[in-house]
Structures are given as structure tokens and as C-alpha cells.
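Following up on my earlier thread - several people asked me to post the actual chain instead of describing it. Fair enough. Here it is, all 193 residues.
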Amino acid sequence: MRGLMIFFISIIVTLLLISAFAFLLPSQVTVAKSVVIKAPKEKIREEIIHFRNWKNWYPPMKDNSVSMQVKNEDKVLLKDSSGREIIMKMIRSIGDTINVSFESISSSKIDYQFLLMSHNADSTLVTLNVNTLFKWYPWQKLKGIFLDKITGPMYEETLANLKRTTSSQPISTSGEGAKSSTPRRNWLIVNHM
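Reply from S.P.:
Thanks for posting it. Predicted structure:
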């Protein structure tokens, strides 16, 4: 009986320590990925600011199990085969910064920020900052430690597809422009937990 009591106290103390550790973790985590695209900023900007173009390069919209319903030019509803819905909204963008917000009842708040910077005369550096705001739950905040490993491959594939779609140079089949080998079937779920 005494051993059972020590076991339960140990579990409670461990859970309290994990919760205390999670309390110290930040609620917002940013994952940043960049690529140089041989195309003018204006061409890339036009590809990003119109949701109808996202089906050309954004992995969840390329997935056949995800349906896209355009609400208006600045708002799109994505729905996967399990019925999970995510609303994408274009937020007021200034200059070479394009902001997109993702909203779902069950997920953390996620914002994409595309930064377009001239790299040289005929190339543009595109940086994708993905800002995730976690709820206060310890398991949500602990997930932030691994966020780059969980979602990073999708963001890399997103930029590689954008490069493939807008670039005026051929894309190699290996290295930076290569297609990610990460399975696509749960992009909506993985990206917006």
C-alpha cells in the first residue's frame, strides 16, 4: 500500500514539474524558411495574394482530399475528408509583406507572413515566417519545442512549389528545389493542430 502511495505521489509531482516547465515556455513560436526565386517580386506577390493561385503551390490545396471554397477574394474555407475546417484570411499587407491568418475552432492561431526582398536584379528572396500562438495548456506549449520538426517539411515544400511555379529558371530534381518526401495526407491536421 505504501509503495502504491509513493507511486501516485511521484506521478503527481512529475506532472506538476512538467506543467511548471511548460509554463516557462513561450506561447508564440515562429518557424522561418527562405528561398531565392529567380522571378520579380511583383510576379511572386501576385501568386501569393490571390488564393485561387495557391492550388498551384500550397500542399494542402494540392491534396485531393481537401476541398477549397472561396468565400471572397480575401477569404477561403478549407475542409478535409474528416470534416475539419480551416478559414484562411488575407490580412492587410503593407509593401513587400503579405500576411495570411488561419483560423479553426480546435487549433492554435497561426499566421503566415511572406517577406519579399530583392536579392539581385532578377531574383527575389522569399521568407515564410509561420507564427503559431499556442493556448496555455502544457501539452500545447510543449509541442512548440518540436514545431519545426513537425511542420517544417511542409513549409519547405510550400516554398519549393512556389519557386517551381514562379521561377524563370529550371528547377533541379535534387537539393533545394526537391519535393519533400513527407506524406501529404494529413497536411491540414499536421499544420493546424
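Residues 38 and 47 are 14 Å apart (CA to CA). That should answer part of your original question.
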